[in-house]
Amino acid sequence: MRSYSLLAPAKINLYLEIIGDRPDGYHELAMVLQSIDLADRIDLRPIGTDTIRVRCDHPQVPPDKNNLAYRAADLLAKQFPDALARYGGIEIVIHKQIPVAAGLAGGSANAAAVLVGIDLLWELGLTQSELQELGATLGSDVPFCIAGGTALATGRGEKLSPLPDLDGFCVVLAKYRNLSISTAWAYQTYRQKFGSTYCPPEDLECRRERLHSGPMVGAIAHKDRSKIGQLLHNDLEKVALPVYEQVLQLRQAFESVSVLGAMMSGSGPTVFALVESRAAALEVEAKVKSAIALPIWIFG
Ligand code: C5P
């Protein structure tokens, strides 16, 4: 039987607005998500036993059910026991490039690749929307990671409307090595601080409608790069920047050089900048590195 090797790309949030509370305890969001070239590689191969085995040499990536990639395989094994019996178990090897707990959806990207890969390995023939429906039970970002590209995401983040591809940009990313921020902490803190400003449930539908014709979506449709840079937004910065001074410093270092825009991605702590060319990205890298000695990634 075949083995598969899949790329699992990270994402950045060009826009993240927290609109309100949801009955399931999550937040109602409006996001613009963008896949980037930073990616893990996921190797899947059949093994003789009926077990799921995860291997990863990164110390922060557990090889058990705490790993979203394991849970993705387990979900399919439970949904399709006949396929498990017919094809046997799976070994998942994660070659980690995406920093962990960094606001780049690394875990969700791994889970998405496992769903797509096992669908091929077990010849399940699931459609993209069926895979996304399964993915949504694992995490809010998994459905986007299955589709990739550029998309408007609403609901918990799982309701997707594709947007035109963004090209001609370079993305520069930086993150303090030993800093991670819990997504649950960021959202809970936001609720404590700003819950009183949330949109009432009866207005949510109208608010969602407005987003589809909002300024960021318009700027992307018109490929207006400087507007996109100006409109970068992330509500979670309001809770992360006051507590994590290093993220604030990094954000300021990016903004002090010539970029179209800079922003924390997701719940952080990765900060990214959009620039127009590779030459501009290298200039930004040199300037930011001279202020703060950090690993920096450039894509595009
Ligand atoms: O869906 P996921 O497991 O990635 O979410 C991680 C945490 O982020 C959740 O436990 C929740 O605290 C928070 N979250 C939220 N609203 C969302 C997405 C995530 O409150 N729409």
Notes on the structure:
The protein is of the alpha+beta class. It has two domains: 4-162, Ribosomal Protein S5, domain 2 (2-Layer Sandwich); 170-211 and 236-299, GHMP kinase, C-terminal domain (Alpha-Beta Plaits, 2-Layer Sandwich), CATH 3.30.70.890. It is built from twelve helices and eleven strands. Strands 1, 2, 3, 4, 5, 6 and 8 form a seven-stranded mixed beta sheet that branches. Strands 9-10-7-11 form a four-stranded antiparallel beta sheet, with helices on both faces. The longest helix is centred in the middle third of the chain and has 16 residues, at 106-121. It is globular. The two termini are 36 Å apart. The structure holds cytidine-5'-monophosphate (C5P).
Q: Descriptors for this entry?
A:
4-stranded antiparallel β-sheet; single chain; globular; 300 residues; Alpha-Beta Plaits; binds cytidine-5'-monophosphate; alpha+beta; 7-stranded mixed β-sheet; Ribosomal Protein S5, domain 2; 2 domains
Sum up the overall morphology in one term: globular
Q: What number of domains?
A: 2
> Structural class of the helices, strands and pairings?
alpha+beta
The ordered H/E elements are: EEEHHEHHHEEEHHHHEHHEEHE
List the topology elements:
Layout: E1 4-21, E2 27-47, E3 52-56, H1 68-79, H2 81-87, E4 89-95, H3 106-121, H4 128-136, H5 142-147, E5 150-154, E6 159-162, E7 170-174, H6 183-194, H7 204-211, H8 215-221, H9 225-231, E8 233-234, H10 237-243, H11 245-255, E9 261-264, E10 271-275, H12 278-291, E11 296-299
Parallel strand pairs: 1-8, 3-4
Antiparallel strand pairs: 1-2, 2-4, 2-5, 5-6, 7-10, 7-11, 9-10
Bound molecules: cytidine-5'-monophosphate (C5P).
Residues 26-27, 29, 139-141, 156-157, 183-184, 187 line the site of cytidine-5'-monophosphate.
